[in-house]
From TrEMBL:
Residues annotated as domain Glucose-6-phosphate dehydrogenase C-terminal: 193-476
Protein known as: Glucose-6-phosphate 1-dehydrogenase
Active site (record annotation): 242
Family statement: Belongs to the glucose-6-phosphate dehydrogenase family.
Entry's EC annotation: 1.1.1.49
Pathway(s) per entry: Carbohydrate degradation; pentose phosphate pathway; D-ribulose 5-phosphate from D-glucose 6-phosphate (oxidative stage): step 1/3
Start and end residues of each Glucose-6-phosphate dehydrogenase NAD-binding domain: 10-188
Amino acid sequence: MAKEKSAIFIIFGGSGDLAHRKLYPSLFRLYKSKVLKDHFAVIGTARRPWSDDYFRETVITSLEDYFDDDKEIMEEFAKHFFYQSHDVNDSEHYIALKNLAGKLDDQFEAGHNRVYYMAIAPRFFGTVAEHINSEGLKTKDGYNRLVIEKPFGRDLDSACELNGNISKAFPEDDIYRIDHYLGKEMVQDIPNIRANNPKLEQALNNKYVSNIQVTLAESIGVEDRGGYYETAGVLRDMIQNHVMQIIGAIASDDPKAKEAKVIHKNKCDLFASLKELSPEEVDTEFVRGQYDTDKTGEKKAYRQEDNVAEDSNIETFVAGKIEFNTDRWSGVPFYVRSGKRMPDKSSRIDIVLNDKVKELGIRPNSVVTLLIEKEDGNSILINGLNYKDAGQDFIEFPEEAEFDNAREAYESLIIDILSGNRVHFTLWDELRSTWKYIDTIRERWDSQTPEFPNYISGTMGPDAAEMLLERDGNSWIWD
Ligand SMILES: NC(=O)c1ccc[n+]([C@@H]2O[C@H](COP(=O)([O-])OP(=O)(O)OC[C@H]3O[C@@H](n4cnc5c(N)ncnc54)[C@H](OP(=O)(O)O)[C@@H]3O)[C@@H](O)[C@H]2O)c1
């Protein structure tokens, strides 16, 4: 259990969806577990002219959606919340924010620590970071940490520009780029699982692995996020960040490493070794899809969704084969897949071992599955069975370390921010490599017109996604 932390949070976009759905409930959990107790305050800031009281009401209302605690404790918590109307382009407003933060720091004895949280549109990230610096919001004797939500750019050029802007204002060590998959317990536990299971770790290389599959499937469509989705698509929204970071956890060297710098270096090295694709290889190694209506015709096709163009070519499904040029991994396909309107929600890693693993005492061709969200009470499967029932002893996991999805990703990431632990945040060098890789695919796709829609809602995506593996003599484990 982390001990009590002190800080003033300034939440840019404090009236928005992310703040109310994710941040305030997570802060409340930390309040209930006393990680946040007496020495913290939250300044919500956005353009609309809310009063403190009104802001607190919205915070309590959002908590009521997730918790059935007494209103009294929610009201006590909400007393730490303050609202400051602010337009990101107005320098004067930053002075008002600075003064309010200073006053609250005295009132709550917050140790001059500041967390600047960007829960606003990405186009404002650079402007806000620059103003925090130029208007002197940073304190001298506490910490000043900048938290950036995704998406971090929409291609390599825009990510470079954004990074240039924020790094003029904040040193890299004070920048916390969120990829909320890195806050999920299973993703955080992957290095532990590897470090605690020498046989599995011994098998994780091109001698013993046939292929590794990462699937992030959703059964829902774009819902009310059509406007955002039209600017993104799955490639940018899921593959560049979440899928790559999951691969980073499973395939980086040295899972025993504890220091953030070492862990990041290992991940950077892995991503720097991504095997580049030629434009022609994009056609053979990656598949894109867009959902049509379902078999009954009841569900909307993507092109019928609100705020989506009738002739949209945005992909709602991607499958692809990624490879790395390292001694450890060269020749091993990492098949990745993410899509909307698939039959079920599932986030999983399937490690498909080959027949040589018998020399390690593992049954040939075993499949180890790590479920990122627990399914049917299971978190680790061997050949589809709970690892404890699978009759193979190469995975043992200390009971106390077993994850239970009890911590919300944002709760865990906020503890890390308050503790100055950057392990579960993404470094610029990682993003540079992954964007470069993704840009090749995007550019190729943007130069061609796809035949969309090409898969029925509720199915596994276009047939080409199956063929991608069949061609190599493999098949998807989650099917
Ligand atoms: N929502 C999610 O689940 C989610 C998930 C992952 C990442 N994100 C990222 O989180 C960020 C916020 O997303 P969101 O969904 O919360 O957006 P949102 O609901 O549209 O909220 C945007 C916030 O920004 C404020 N704002 C807009 N223009 C402003 C300006 N000129 N000056 C000051 N404040 C301004 C808005 O309030 P006013 O209109 O009153 O100014 C509002 O509080 C985005 O970067 C998004 O990509 C969101």
